[in-house]
Design the sequence.
């Protein structure tokens, strides 16, 4: 009788339906939506969801193994397909339709390629391959980017039942219990966590998006499911405290994580641990646990529509600025939250529940698998067809003559008044990203030392006169023009450039690396050493205006430049368009004025620009003010003549730079004659 009462009590604690988990699912989606939409800077919602998925699926699989000694893969995958595939297909196809109507035609094919990857559940690996920055806020985000986490979960669903059955069988054969299963799960957790932590500073996209660096979070939930019968025996008072501690851990650690925190690293362990504690405490069914807060009608409803809310909030968020074509304010973000919630609610009742409770699909699991397979294949096929649809851009006949660009400052003024985008420029937009400097050399982020090589020498390579062009990517963008000028003026040009690295002695924080740009400091030292060896006749300094600039850093650099004995030239920085110009033009072909920028906005960090210019003048540098070649009447146009001025959100095109020969050549010719 005692044994019977004990078993009954444990069964009462190990409930099939867990209201606290439903509430925690609501908390997780609210965290995700709040963070993405800029409502609250709280991270970790996806990590909590991973733990929930691991626990729920692990509990389901282990219960079936206990009952039958195996897992029906057909039934398991049919349940997953009924739950996941229809809403996912609707979101993927619907997002593609919205992107076709409102997004830049230049991005549409990349978007549908992401949609194809999402439909086949490997978008996370595409993001790794592309080196995607999850926290980028520069308009480069894909409306499908959030499918990375679903891809990991679906990969887990595909493999988990097979692996778990094998582990249980092996453990019973060797140790006659499930101890080996626990050891194997612990090994996966430890190994995966270590890979994620160690790869974060080395390759953040790999650490953030890859399956093997994230699977530990889901596996933690599976391990807790394995231990649930033991955890359920916990004293109810202790269990209540554990669940409250877990909820507090989720909220506190999630608020401590910021966009500057290296993720995933070790930081995501906080929300994961918190979720595990909430679930573990709930296993004992305590009367005064966190379930008191988590179990309520509001959270229950949000939990029900959480999947659809996750699916729809992100594509609407990414596309909303294109849809409304106005400033993306806090009010606009709240509209995204509300609209995506309403869509999720409708999809829950009209799609999710119908497939989940479909009598034929439930009774015949093989039909569910086939339906899921056809849905996936149909979605992927739709993305393939979308990728070959002709884009809505005009084309112009090929011309042997280069397109006119800058001819005089009058051409810039004329461009300010231009409205319609010519067919000739439209036809170049698809290849705009290729319209960058091809001559000279530039070192990437990881390079720590400048090394002179053949590619760094352009212009008249046999000349005895040497010009050095020194700087970051805003120096490198001029290379093709300097190559032509060097050949015409019979001077050798050596380019020394490193991405994001100012030649002036500033300590720079690299957004790519998420830390101080130490590689820049060491590269700059080696470049200065090479300058002393070269002894150039003319040294041209060009770099991006940046807020890290200090007068001491500029002074220190120009003292080094002076010691070379070269004639010093300082080129002021080019304007910042503030948006991806080709994308903007492709969506505003009838009126391109939204793609132009006011001069006061484009010439950012004006106080630092003025300081650098003054220091350069104090050290005898000739100043080349580039502004008249880009701005007029307080506007900096995105198209001048028939030349695209910028190929991205920062750098000028090779075509426009070469059109500036009449602007730059007389000045450089005079400088060389005096050098």
Sequence:
């Amino acid at each position: 009788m005692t044994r019977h009462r004990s078993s009954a009590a444990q069964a009462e604690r190990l409930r099939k339906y867990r209201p606290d988990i439903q509430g925690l699912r609501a908390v997780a989606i609210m965290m995700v939506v709040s963070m993405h939409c800029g409502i609250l800077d709280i991270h970790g919602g996806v990590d909590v969801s991973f733990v929930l998925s691991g626990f729920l699926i692990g509990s389901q699989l282990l219960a079936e193994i206990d009952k039958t000694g195996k897992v029906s893969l057909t039934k398991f995958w049919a349940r997953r397909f009924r739950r996941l595939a229809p809403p996912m297909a609707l979101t993927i196809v619907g997002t593609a339709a919205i992107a076709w109507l409102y997004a830049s035609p230049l991005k549409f094919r990349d978007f549908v390629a992401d949609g194809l990857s999402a439909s086949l559940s490997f978008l996370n690996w595409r993001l790794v391959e592309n080196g995607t920055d999850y926290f980028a806020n520069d308009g480069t985000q894909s409306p499908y980017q959030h499918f990375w986490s679903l891809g990991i979960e679906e990969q887990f669903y595909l493999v988990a039942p097979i692996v778990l059955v094998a582990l249980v069988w092996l453990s019973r054969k060797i140790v006659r219990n499930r101890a080996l299963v626990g050891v194997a799960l612990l090994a996966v957790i430890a190994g995966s966590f270590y890979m994620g932590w160690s790869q974060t500073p080395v390759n953040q996209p790999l650490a953030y998006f890859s399956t093997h660096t994230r699977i530990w979070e889901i596996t933690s939930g599976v391990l807790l499911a394995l231990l649930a019968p033991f955890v359920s025996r916990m004293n109810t008072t202790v269990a209540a405290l554990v669940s409250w501690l877990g909820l507090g851990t989720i909220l506190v650690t999630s608020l401590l994580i910021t966009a500057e925190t290296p993720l995933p690293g070790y930081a995501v362990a906080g929300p994961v641990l918190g979720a595990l504690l909430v679930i573990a405490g709930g296993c004992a069914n305590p009367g005064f646990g966190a379930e008191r807060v988590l179990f309520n009608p509001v959270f229950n409803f949000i939990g029900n529509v959480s999947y659809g809310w996750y699916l729809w909030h992100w594509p609407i968020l990414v596309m909303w600025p294109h849809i409304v074509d106005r400033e993306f304010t806090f009010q606009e973000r709240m509209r995204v939250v509300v609209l995506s919630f309403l869509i999720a609610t409708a999809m829950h009742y009209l799609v999710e529940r119908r497939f989940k409770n479909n009598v034929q699909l439930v009774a015949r699991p093989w039909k569910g698998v086939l339906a899921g397979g056809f849905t996936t294949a149909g979605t992927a096929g739709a993305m393939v067809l979308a990728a070959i649809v002709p884009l809505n851009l005009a084309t112009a006949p090929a011309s042997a003559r280069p397109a006119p660009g800058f001819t005089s400052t009058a051409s810039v003024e004329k461009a300010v008044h231009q409205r319609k985008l010519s067919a000739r420029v439209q036809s170049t937009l698809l290849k705009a990203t290729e319209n960058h400097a091809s001559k000279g050399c530039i070192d990437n982020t990881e390079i720590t030392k400048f090394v002179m090589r053949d590619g760094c020498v352009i212009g008249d390579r046999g000349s005895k006169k040497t010009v050095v062009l020194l700087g970051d990517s805003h120096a490198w963008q001029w290379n093709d023009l300097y190559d032509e000028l060097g050949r015409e003026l019979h001077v050798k040009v050596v380019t020394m450039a490193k991405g994001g690295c100012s030649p002036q002695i500033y300590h720079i924080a690299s957004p790519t690396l998420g830390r101080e740009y130490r590689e820049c400091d060491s590269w700059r030292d080696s470049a200065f050493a090479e300058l002393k060896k070269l002894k150039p006749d003319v040294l041209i300094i060009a770099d991006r205006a940046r807020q890290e600039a200090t007068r001491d850093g500029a002074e220190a650099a120009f003292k080094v430049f002076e010691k070379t004995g070269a004639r010093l030239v300082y080129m002021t920085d080019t304007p910042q368009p503030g948006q991806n110009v080709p994308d903007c033009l492709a969506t505003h072909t009838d009126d391109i004025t939204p793609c132009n920028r006011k001069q006061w906005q484009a010439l950012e960090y004006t106080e630092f620009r003025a300081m650098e210019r003054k220091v350069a003048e104090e050290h005898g540098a000739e100043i080349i003010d580039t502004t008249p070649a880009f701005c007029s009447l307080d506007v900096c146009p995105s198209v001048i003549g028939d030349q695209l001025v910028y190929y991205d959100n920062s750098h000028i095109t090779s075509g426009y730079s070469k059109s500036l020969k009449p602007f730059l050549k007389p000045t450089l010719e005079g400088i060389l004659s005096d050098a």
Summary: The chain has two domains: 18-132+149-387, 412-674.
